[in-house]
Specification:
Elements lengths: L1 H24 L3 H16 L7 H12 L2 E9 L7 E4 H15 L4 E11 L5 E11 L7 E12 L2 E9 L5
Parallel strand pairs: 1-6
Antiparallel strand pairs: 1-2, 3-4, 4-5, 5-6
Helix pairs in contact: 3-4
């Protein structure tokens, strides 16, 4: 009886390790996209006194999250609506922002990812907050991001602000 109990515990432990390993080696698309969004927020943030080469490297990394034909439309109330088409526009905008700002803290919160039935595209609805230097209250904006799967990567093809009631 005791050997059966030991075997049962051993099989249970091996099953648990196998389940964990499967999830680690083959994560769900939702988990991959959430991880990408966390990395995007870290890269988009600007540390105080960031070195020029670091700014350039982070800008390059930032645009690598986007597809070559990505379209980003930013419509923040009280500001001019801006649309960026492609990585080139995004890179220029990111370099400009990094040149003007000496500190920026970006967070992507309340992420809800919906993966398409064919697992080739996904939609992420989230809340973005940006704490600008000299402002006590962060800018808060609802965003809708569309991702497409390219090889093993999930790339952002579209970002648009969501109109909310205020």
């Amino acid at each position: 009886m005791k050997t059966w109990l030991v075997r049962l515990v051993l099989v249970g432990a091996l099953g648990s390790i196998g389940f964990w390993a499967w999830g680690f080696l083959f994560p769900s698309p939702e988990r991959v996209i959430r991880k990408e969004l966390d990395a995007l927020a870290r890269i988009a943030s600007i540390a105080p006194n960031e070195a020029p080469l670091t700014k350039l490297a982070k800008t390059q990394k930032l645009v690598s999250f986007f597809a070559g034909d990505a379209q980003v439309t930013v419509d923040v109330p009280g500001r001019v609506t801006q649309t960026f088409n492609g990585r080139e526009d995004l890179q220029q905008a990111a370099l400009g922002a990094r040149a003007l700002l000496n500190n920026l803290q970006v967070q992507l919160l309340d992420v809800l990812v919906t993966v398409g039935a064919d697992k080739q595209y996904a939609v992420a609805n989230l809340t973005a907050t940006a704490t600008l230097p000299g402002e006590k209250i962060p800018e808060v904006q609802e965003l809708k991001m569309i991702f497409k799967k390219a090889d093993r990567d999930w790339l952002i093809t579209s970002v648009e602000t969501v109109k909310t009631l205020r």
